[in-house]
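INTERNAL AUDIT FORM
Audit reference: QA-55
Scope: verify that the stored structure record matches its stored sequence.
Auditor: D.O.
Record contents follow.
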Amino acid sequence: MIADLDTGVRFEHPDLQWAGAGGRLLPGYTFISDTFVANDGDAQDADASDPGDWVTQADLSRAECSGGTAGNSSWHGTRTAGLLGALSNNGTGIAGMTWSAWLLPVRVLGKCGGLDSDIVAGMLWAAGIHVNGVPDNPYPARIENMSLGGTGACPQQYIDVISQLTAKGVLVVASAGNEGGLVDTPANCPGVAGVAGIRHAGTKVGYSSLGPEVALSAPAGNCVNTAPGSACLYPVTSATNQGATTPGAYGYTDQVNNPNLGTSFSAPIVSGIAGLMLAANGNLNSAQLISRLKEGSVAFPQTSATTTTMCHVPASSSDLQTVECICTLDGQTCGAGMASASGALNAALRPTAAVKVPPSVGPGTNVTLDGSGSSAACKRTIASYQWASSDQAHPVTNSNGPSTTVTAPATGTFTVTLTITDDAGKKDVATVIISSSAATTSAPATAGTNACLTAIAVPSPVTISISPTAGSLQAGSGTTQSFSATVGYTLNTQVTWQVNTVRIGRRFDSVCVGNSHDHRAARQQRHQRWP
């Protein structure tokens, strides 16, 4: 399951439908605490739909919009969600990166951006971690896509939250940023798969940020050198909404009026690939997913028809590379390589070697190494184990069983290597360093037992019942009629009431209809979406 932390999603889009009604969108949540930013009449609630994030000239006088610009709604969350998991084989629009992954919309950005506190709360909730004052998420995600960012070093609160997520095996994928300089938060945080943007030819697109925190790169969209008003030649097409401000007809981004350009669209490509990897091998944790994403990537081209400039590691926030450059092969600028779905899946299908080592070791003592916790990918099995010692004076006692024993040296160290092979011939290797006082390894003690992920129950379609089912009022009589609504099979139990298509209340589960209308006034960051 993939959580998309963004501006929300337009659920009526034919490529992005509710789960239980033919789609794959699960009940999400809005964590925006500022009513003005939420832009839907209230703040935190169980409605993750995007009301639009348009900004007027008057809005720019507010503190939330300081430094911003006026503009129409971006429908940013709908765009990133479309790349993640637009329905496939439905004869409509596009196909997302994943075939069957569930998508969990978590709304953390709105009008003029969002707050760190709201973002980290959404990150915790999406992973199934309890957040005070919010119903627990019944559908914890394994991947969190974050097409957002802010400048500066990774704050401690992000470090703490990401540490909790990685401990649960949750992968965070984040956009590197669009300034052409230092990688932004949270892509620059430890344990996160930061994603930079490349052009159609594999060179870094000018606007993409870059640096050693980037794990790998993916297409971000680029227009080449086209005349003003002409079509963008290499955009990233996705689902969107046609409304200028509030929701209108559904649609898809095009090459002229609203092309997708930005590392916002690189991140969901990588998140979608990671989702495919988990479908093949659900035992992979976040560090293993990042490692195998890199392993399966394709090397950057080292020549270009349009530039000879090599990318370099930014020296400071003012060291910008806002033009195309050739990504280096050392993993320090644009990551390990270009994202490859086929390469990553091949890497995910490899088994995972695990070794359990004893808690203590003494000089000359027998050291038992247990590799029985190793695991294969979904529907595959471990076919063989092979142990080898680097020191002929300290051979292994059993070279081809799930466990072996060696004698610890009186001084110095040597290495024991475990190679496992599955029934398809794919391999993985783990090494153990043996000294006179310890046996140490970076391999896990156990690789897990859930290679084939358990399918979640398809949520039932949302239901609503109204009581009473009918009523009648005489205009001008001064009488009232109360109605109540009960909503089932969703966290969002709020409703909007209308009389003759005129709204008389928003997001209440009951309403009293009479001779006057109840109007609710809107009242009143650091992070922003990365288009």
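Auditor finding: record pair retrieved intact. The CA atoms of residues 352 and 375 lie 5 Å apart.
Action required: none
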